[in-house]
Amino acid sequence: SQQGEEDPQALSIQEGENATMNCSYKTSINNLQWYRQNSGRGLVHLILIRSNEREKHSGRLRVTLDTSKKSSSLLITASRAADTASYFCATDAPPYSNSGGSNYKLTFGKGTLLTVNP
Amino acid sequence: NAGVMQNPRHLVRRRGQEARLRCSPMKGHSHVYWYRQLPEEGLKFMVYLQKENIIDESGMPKERFSAEFPKEGPSILRIQQVVRGDSAAYFCASSLRQGADEKLFFGSGTQLSVL
Fold first, then answer.
1. Interatomic CA distance for residues A28 and A107, integer angstroms
2. I need a surface site. Which of A31, A83, B53, B106 has the fewest CB within 10 A?
């Protein structure tokens, strides 16, 4: 499997339900980011979690990071039809710059396609 | 403040032609990155540029691909003698600075189709 691999590949839920997506990676990281991509559009940055953080919240989003298992999860609570999109996790790759990390050479997974039915 | 602008949105080329993809970073951003997304795949890093400099091109194919970010004007990703395997979505991103927690802002991409 590749660095930054999401599962499930596709998830279909009803509006109001929670959606959980997982991401696994192989090498050590400086941080992990989650992005959303609506069909035919660019990526929108959702949240960044550093390797020394375990959990982070942003609105209806909750991200966890377990560096011992090299995995992360993205939870979207009280989902809405507008949350329908593909969700990608991205990790930065070593070697790191002297500034403590190099975030531009991100490795993305294939994504989870989330469909929220009204 | 306009976001990252890419054009064209869709580009159709026949095998052997040249493709030129343009990217204007967000205002004030001097760091530009190109990524490629093949069908059913995640984005893959291609190249990182600052004004007039290529910083990291480790993700660029060795032949036919080139990128520039001139002092004036947009960044250009150029693909010569395109082949069907070049069909993909090409995304440009920009950032204000370079650092561990610096956020990348992505454009809407150029969908290249090679006939």
1. 12
2. B53
Mean pLDDT, residues A11-37 taken together = 92
Taking any CB pair shorter than 8 Å as contact, residues of chain A touching chain B are: 2, 4, 30-31, 35, 40-45, 48, 50, 88, 90, 92, 96-97, 99-111
Predicted local confidence at residue A47, as pLDDT: 93
The torsion angles phi and psi of A82, rounded to 5 degrees, stand at -70, -10
Q: Which residues of B are less than 8 Å from A100 in CB distance?
A: 99-100
- Within 10 angstroms of residue A102's Cβ, the number of other Cβ atoms is 21
Each residue of B87-106: pLDDT tens digit?
999 999 999 877 767 788 99
Query: How far apart, in whole angstroms, are the C-alpha atoms of residue B82 and residue B96?
Result: 32
